[in-house]
Design brief:
12% strand; four-stranded parallel sheet; Arc Repressor Mutant, subunit A; 9 helices; elongated; 52% helix; 191 residues
Length: 191
């Protein structure tokens, strides 16, 4: 197993949750945080950055060029994307910290993940946000958050037939009706 090495990371974002996530997930990284390229250049250390992560905005390409010119070269890894994308993108950075260079095209997109992997990634984000916000009663919140869209989707697929929906879900029809009522799931009236 390759030895871990210190990775210098530049994170261009104003989102404190994203900063906390990268600090937690990548403890081997020395993280420099800046809101934009100009402030990053002012904070620039005497070493090169191994990775630059930019929360996307319309001028990100200009910011990247400014960084390349000011900091002397392109980093090993550049990630640009929305907050949602960047929350899921810590794996390549962890690999970089462990001395692995991931081949291009090995990162999987959300539609390429299996159901269990996708739900796991989403739950990880949700649990972190709850932890940062000092949330409680996580189990019931998650059950409701999953149960309502699941029942709604099954009802749509069965065209509102509660007997078929209950059978598909493995529930008693009366239990399903109670859940529909408690979760305030609208029922389409048959014409």
């Amino acid at each position: 197993m390759p030895a871990r090495e210190v990775v210098y990371l530049l994170l261009l974002t104003a989102n404190p949750d994203l900063v906390e996530l990268y600090r937690q997930d990548c403890p081997e990284c020395v993280v420099t945080i800046a809101k934009d390229a100009a402030s990053a250049v002012r904070k620039a250390p005497k070493h090169r950055f191994d990775a630059v992560i930019i929360e996307s905005r319309k001028d990100w390409a200009i910011e990247m060029k400014l960084l390349n010119d000011a900091l002397g070269g392109t980093p090993s890894m550049v990630l640009v994307g929305s907050t949602t994308f960047l929350r899921r993108a810590t794996e390549p950075l962890k690999a970089l910290c462990n001395g692995h260079r991931a081949p291009r095209g090995t990162t999987r997109l959300h539609h390429e993940l299996g159901l269990e992997e996708f739900i796991g990634a989403k739950l990880r984000d949700f649990v972190r946000r709850m932890k940062l916000g000092a949330g409680s009663d996580l189990h019931s919140l998650l059950v409701k958050a999953v149960e309502k869209p699941l029942i709604t989707l099954v009802l749509e697929e069965t065209h509102g037939n509660q007997n078929q929906a209950a059978a598909l879900l493995g529930l008693n029809r009366n239990t399903l009706r109670k859940k529909i009522h408690n979760l305030k799931i609208p029922i389409a009236k048959k014409a």
